[in-house]
Amino acid sequence: MTKRQTAAKALTLLFSAAFFGIIAAVTFVITAPLAKEYLTEETEASTSVTIPTDAELQPTEAESIPEQETCMESGTAEELVGDVVRKELETLEFREEDWEAFYGALQKRAAEAEQGLVTITAVRQRTDLFNNPVETAGKFSGAVIARTPTEYLILTVADAVNGMDSIQVRVSGGQEVAGRVVGIDHIAGLAVVSIEIAKLEKKSLEEIRVLELGNSYTVQRGDLLAAVGSPAGYPQSSGFGTVSYVRENVQIIDGTSQIFYVDVPGNASKGTFLVDRDRKLVGWVTSDFQIENSRLAAVRTISDYKSILEKLSNGIDIPYIGVMGQAVSEKQIEKGVPAGVYVNRAIADGSAYQAGIQAGDIITEVNNIPVATRQNWREMIDDLKAGSVVPVKIQRYSRDAYIELEYQVTIGAR
Predict the structure, then answer these.
(1) Please, what is the end-to-end C-alpha distance for the chain in angstroms?
(2) Distance separating alpha carbons of residues 226 and 277, to the nearest angstrom
(3) CA 57 – CA 66 distance, rounded (Å)
(4) pLDDT (tens digit, 9 = 90+) per residue, 190-235?
(5) What phi, psi does 314 have (nearest 5°)?
(6) Are the C-beta atoms of residues 409 and 351 closer than 8 Å to each other?
(7) Which of 209, 207, 125 is nearest to 165 (CA)?
(8) Which of 46-55, 217-226, 237-246 has the lowest mean pLDDT?
(9) Contact 153/165 with Cβ under 8 angstroms?
C-alpha cells in the first residue's frame, strides 16, 4: 500500500468516525428527554419493596497444624494466653468515668435506634350493655423498616391491628398520622403498617429514619444487643443484654429459624425489637419458645424471616402449608429412610392436614420439585402462590415398608 493510499484510508476512517459521532450525538439529544420522561417515571412510580435475604454461615474446616508446631507441649499456648490475661486484669483500673462512658455509648445506641421506632395507638369501638359507645385504645411499638416513594413501612405486632377500627402512628418528633394495614402474618404474629410521606411535616421527615435490617446469622453468643420499643411493656422503653444462647434450626411452621435467648427485658405483645452495635434490627421478642421461669427473652431472628417480610411489606399473601418438620439426615438415608422432610406435626387448619398429610409422613416432592434440604424446603414454600393447587408426594411407612402417595394440596395464606 502506497503512502497516498494509506493517507486516503486514514482520512476515510476519520470522516466515518466524525460522521457517526455526529449521528449518535443528534440521536442522544432527541431521545434523551423521551427516555428520561418514560424510564424515570416508571422507576419513581415503583412502590414495591425488595428485601435481600442473607446467606447462612457455613462452618469452616479447621486449619491443619504445621508439623513443626506439633512438638509443643500440651497446654503451653493456653497457659501463655492465661498469664497475659491475668497480668492485664491485675493492672486494669476501671474508673467511674469509664463506666459512664460505657453506659453513655449504650444509651446513644438506643437513642439513635429509637429514631426508627414509632408508637402505634390502636382504637377499637364497641358498645356496652346499654348500647352506649365504648372506645378502648392500646399502645404498641413499631419499627420503620422501609421507605417507598410515597410511604414509610412499619413492622409491628399483629395485636396492634387485629380487629382495630383505627390506627394512629406517632413518629420520631411527636407528629401523629393515620396508619394503613398493609399485611398481617397471623402465624408469626406480625403485621406491616404504612404511613403516607405526604402527611409528614418537615421536622418529622428530618428526624424519622429507616431501621436497617441486619444479618442475624452473624450474631454470636456473648454479643451485646439493645432492646428497644416496649421491653418494659410501654413504648419508648429500652434495655441492654448479652446473647446467652443461640439455638439453630428450630422447627417453626413451614420452616426453621434461629432463636436467640437474650438477657434483656422483653414484652412480646407490645413490640420489642433487638438491634446490634451497628443499630441494625436483628430480631424481635416472641412469646413462643420462651423458657418457663427464665429471665431470658426468646428472640425470633430477622434473617430467617426476610423472604416472608418482603411479601408482607408488598401486601402479598404469604403461602401456608401448615407443617412442622425436619430434613432427613444422611445417616438416616443410609439406613433406608427416604430423603425429604419428616413431618413432626401437621397443623389442624393447614393445607397439608386438610389434604390428608399426617405426622410421620416424609414429604419428598412439592410441585414436582424434589425436597432435599431444610433450606430447599423453605425456598420451595416461598415460591408457592396462595390459592394455587400443587401436587405433593410423600412417603408413608406402612407395615414394613414405605409407600408413595400423592396429594393435591391447595396452598393457603397465613
Answers:
(1) 78
(2) 8
(3) 26
(4) 999 999 999 999 999 999 999 999 999 999 999 999 999 999 999 9
(5) -100, 10
(6) yes
(7) 125
(8) 46-55
(9) no
